[in-house]
From TrEMBL:
Coiled coil (UniProt feature): none
Keyword Transmembrane helix carried by entry: no
Listed SUPFAM superfamilies: Cytochrome P450 (SSF48264)
Organism: Streptosporangium saharense
Gene3D superfamilies for this protein: Cytochrome P450
Pfam families: p450 (PF00067)
Keyword Cytoplasm among record annotations: no
Domain of life: Bacteria
UniProt cross-references to PANTHER family, sorted A to Z: CYTOCHROME P450 YJIB-RELATED, P450, PUTATIVE (EUROFUNG)-RELATED
Assigned protein family: Belongs to the cytochrome P450 family.
UniProt entry keywords in alphabetical sequence: Heme, Iron, Metal-binding, Monooxygenase, Oxidoreductase
Protein name from the UniProt record: Cytochrome P450
InterPro entries: Cyt_P450, Cyt_P450_B, Cyt_P450_CS, Cyt_P450_sf
Length: 398
């Protein structure tokens, strides 16, 4: 078996280079993450894509041996029982309920509102001639959309941002553990109050629909309701923020690609898929747990092990993607796994794609002179964990 990697590998500031070098030694490697637990990284497309839908790799923490199971339960207790961390038949039941809000017709009906939000944000930026594209555009666009879809006040978005970054990042010291506990409590209190409001006075929003399903059809228990709402709030904006930020950085540092996209706007859908592949917003798929002894890439995976599929590495496998480190908005047959694969394929992918199409199209149309307002070498990535891949800031001028 290859030598076990230290847990710091998972926090590499340059994951693409680190994973490329490691992939040359083999597709699967042991890693000490979470610290002290048996875990493995999957880095290639041949093994990574099937692993995302392998029934031997479960999502429920019920498959985690003690004492580690207690640690998983404590880390994100507010998210316990959400559909992303469930297996059939619970996963099937939970996903079916939420999928009603993400039908193609419902998503397409949001286009005018998404366009209006994008235009309003750019109107506010224009007089200044400069902006942090994350704070001023990439974050407020999807958070406003998901807030309106759920039925929660947009004015609370600052709290949502802190909650999201805390719940998707690792807690590696006592201060982070304490803050995560505080956030778990705050999120629970927040949604408990809103659920009570919707029970008393239902509205035409997703929270009311889920409360109704909980009370009338008994499709959810109380914890599943809280976990589902928290997941929708986080996943409904966190990934799109970084899709927009990472994609714009890629464009602004590849002038020939930016020029091509300006000249051929019909390439926008292809460009969005390439942004997802080239530097997608999710670096690592959520935890999977081996339900039996198995083998991946010639490496023995003992029952109870954690398996991490590194989506960023899978999407840059040179055996599948020619010149994988190069941004190519004309790339054909782009079979990336940025949204996952199989039964856990991202439910919000159609909404994320629509938001991205509107965002990039509007930015390029209304800010024709947009460019980086710093040296590319000064750009810093968040290192809060390997799950989300995103920037700290994206200064631009126009």
């Amino acid at each position: 078996m290859p030598e076990k990697l230290p847990f710091e590998f998972i926090l590499s500031p340059d994951p693409h280079a680190a994973c490329a070098a490691l992939r040359e030694k083999g597709p699967v490697h042991p890693v000490d993450f979470p610290p002290g637990m048996g875990a493995f990284l999957v880095l290639d497309y041949e093994h990574g894509r099937p692993a995302l839908n392998d029934p031997r790799l479960a999502k429920s923490v019920a498959w985690v041996p003690e004492p580690f199971r207690a640690r998983f339960d404590a880390d994100n207790r507010i998210l316990a029982g959400n559909m992303l961390d469930s297996d059939p038949p619970d996963h099937t039941r939970l996903r079916r309920l939420v999928s009603k809000a993400f039908t193609p017709r419902r998503i397409e009906s949001l286009r005018p509102r998404i366009q209006a939000i994008a235009d309003d944000l750019i109107d506010a930026m224009l007089p200044r001639g400069e902006a942090d594209l994350l704070d001023d555009f990439a974050f407020p666009l999807p958070i406003t959309v998901i807030c309106e879809l759920l039925g929660v006040p947009v004015r609370d978005q600052a709290a949502f941002r802190d909650w999201s970054s805390t719940l998707v990042g690792p807690a590696l010291d006592e201060a982070q553990v304490r803050h995560r506990e505080e956030v778990n409590t705050a999120v629970g209190d927040y949604f408990t109050a809103i659920i009570a409001e919707r029970r008393a006075a239902p509205r035409d929003d997703l929270i009311s629909a889920m409360v109704l399903a909980r009370d009338d059809d008994e499709l959810l228990d109380d914890q599943e309701l809280l976990a589902g709402l928290t997941l929708l709030l986080i996943a409904g904006h966190e990934t799109t923020v970084n899709l927009i930020g990472n994609g714009m950085l890629a464009l602004l540092t590849a002038p020939e690609q930016l020029k091509t996209l300006r000249e051929r706007p019909e390439l926008l859908p292809s460009a969005v898929e390439e942004f997802l592949r080239h530097d997608g917003p999710v670096g690592r798929a959520t935890f999977r747990f081996a339900t039996e002894d198995l083998e991946l890439g010639g490496v023995h995976i003992p029952k109870g092990s954690v398996v991490h599929i590194l989506l960023g590495a899978v999407n840059r496998d040179p055996q599948v993607f020619g010149c994988p480190d190069v941004l190519d908005i004309t790339r054909a047959d782009n079979r990336h796994v940025a949204f996952g694969h199989g039964i856990h394929f991202c439910l919000g992918a159609p909404l994320a794609r629509l938001e991205a199409l509107v965002a990039f199209g509007t930015l390029l149309e209304r800010l024709p002179g947009i460019e980086l307002d710093c040296d590319p070498g000064a750009i810093r990535w968040n290192r809060s964990g390997s799950l989300i891949r995103g920037l700290r800031a994206l200064p631009v001028r126009f």
